[in-house]
Amino acid sequence: MARRDGERRLQINFACNRALGQELEERNENERTACHRVTLPVLVVHGSEDPRPLDGIEALVEALPDARLEVVPGAGHQPWTEQPQPFTGLVRRFLSRCAAQLSVRPEPTSLDGLLERARVRRQQALELAADLKLVERWSRVGQVQQVGAVAYGLVVSRDLDYEVFTDGTPSIAASFEALAQLAQHPRVTSTRFRNALHTPDQGLYWQVRCTGNDTHEWKVDLWTLAADHPGPLSAWLVEPMRRAVNDEQRKAILLLKEARAAGAVRAIASIDIYRAVIDGGVRTPDELGRYLGPDYEPRLTA
Fold it and tell me: Model's pTM, two decimal places?
């Protein structure tokens, strides 16, 4: 009788989880929008035996701009009590990485130093990309385009972003082959994959975390996408941004991004900092707050 009652409770638990999952799926777009606002590092810990589906957790991590997913073997829904030592180790390592990042976050000081700091960070990014042979490896999958802050010369965070365009539907097998070769590089510490072909993103997402020449952690984000992807795409912004931004605007953007990194302004997507400076004439953190208003929602293109 006790065994049957236990099995019945387990079935109810799974049924509840399915109902919750369906409810969350219906609110998915609102949840993604809220997650995009979070620009601080986030650690998401999932138990390998947790009845809640892993793909839901991966979707959450994908929606957060700077998130790391760790799966604790042998743990269920409460890894901090079921596997306390592995859980504590993950948290300690995560906090150590955050402390290291905080210790080198630049203070938004003189405008004259902004361009030089961005130049140095961009050079570090390009050297890391060359050492990892990122373009060479992913050129076997499709046409590689550098996007994001490194492409614009507006680097503050340690991020590298690429879009890789393929003829037809992106191949999971071909991309995994490139990722497998990359994962063997001694600088690479972790990788992550998400199949988003049947979502509005219509692509395959790949994340690589690695150690740069400066000994700090860098994050590489790659999307493999069909060449006829309907968009919006980050690749669309590269040339217009390069043409549009002058030195005065470049300094303002870097000032605001450094202020964001130092926690001096609210969490905001970089694209909206660019828009505020270029279209709105914003130059200071206070002006940015007024420009965004209380109901700010991040968006890619307009």
Answer: 0.69
